[in-house]
Write a structure and sequence with these properties.
This protein has about 170 residues and is an alpha+beta fold. It has a single domain, classed as 3-Layer(aba) Sandwich (Aminopeptidase). Helix content is about 30%, strand content about 30%. It has an eight-stranded mixed beta sheet with strand order 1-2-3-4-5-6-8-7, with helices on both faces. The radius of gyration is 15 Å and the shape is globular. Bound molecules: coenzyme A. Coenzyme A (COA) binds next to strand 5, helix 5 and helix 6. The site of coenzyme A (COA) has 21 residues, from strand 5, helix 5 and helix 6.
Length: about 170
């Protein structure tokens, strides 16, 4: 679904096995992983890419910066399993979105650009709602959700904030 999706400055595409080095460089940085998990080893990066990026129905996708053709992060895009949200928006009609960027690319509007493109593709694909979930201290992610008019819902997890955007009008 997300293969070769263009944003203003980037391309979102499926992972290739050769992406592992670029991904490891990003996910081994403790600043990048601060609100996610402890930083990844090379082995953990390979397993993560294999399990979620190189499988039949990928949940993560590579983010390429077009100007330099560099891998600058990954995008999260997959069905979000949640009984209450699926009752409200339809079974299989709720997707989770997210983005993890290399530190050198923060604060240039790329996160907002990518999530904005995922909002647009979701609207075109008949997805009813998208969810952005982040650590309660991850203010940059919360700001992106706020700018794109996501609505905050009560999270079942005290450490997470849950933002939802309806993408399909009745
Ligand atoms: C979270 C992340 C994707 C944001 O991407 P980004 O490209 O830097 O975000 P943008 O530049 O589009 O926008 C960030 C907004 O948050 C604001 N912001 C950034 N850091 C902030 C902070 N510490 N406190 C408050 N606001 C902050 C920026 O000013 C900007 O708002 P503005 O457009 O009103 O000025 C990026 O920082 C990242 O990859 N972090 C590490 C991985 C991660 O945590 N991913 C999210 C998992 S849910």
């Amino acid at each position: 679904m997300l293969d070769n999706l263009k944003t203003k400055r980037c391309t979102i595409r499926k992972f290739n096995p050769s992406d592992v080095g670029g991904l490891f460089e990003i996910l081994s940085n403790a600043n990048v992983m601060r609100y996610i998990e402890p930083e990844f080893s090379r082995n953990q990066t390979e397993n993560f890419m294999q399990k979620y990026g190189l499988c039949e129905e990928p949940k993560i996708f590579t983010l390429i910066y077009d100007k330099s053709k560099t891998l600058i992060g990954h995008v999260i895009y997959h069905p979000f399993k949640d009984d209450a949200l699926e009752r409200e928006f339809g079974n299989g009609k709720v997707f989770e979105v997210g983005v993890v960027l290399a530190e050198a690319y923060w604060n240039r509007g790329i996160g907002s650009e990518v999530i904005g493109a995922l909002v647009d593709i979701s609207k075109e694909s008949g997805i009813s709602a998208i969810v952005l979930e982040c650590d309660k201290d991850n203010l940059a992610s919360a700001r992106i959700a706020q700018k794109l008019k996501f609505v905050e819902k009560k999270s079942g997890d005290a450490y997470l904030r849950l933002f939802v955007l309806q993408t399909k009008q009745e």
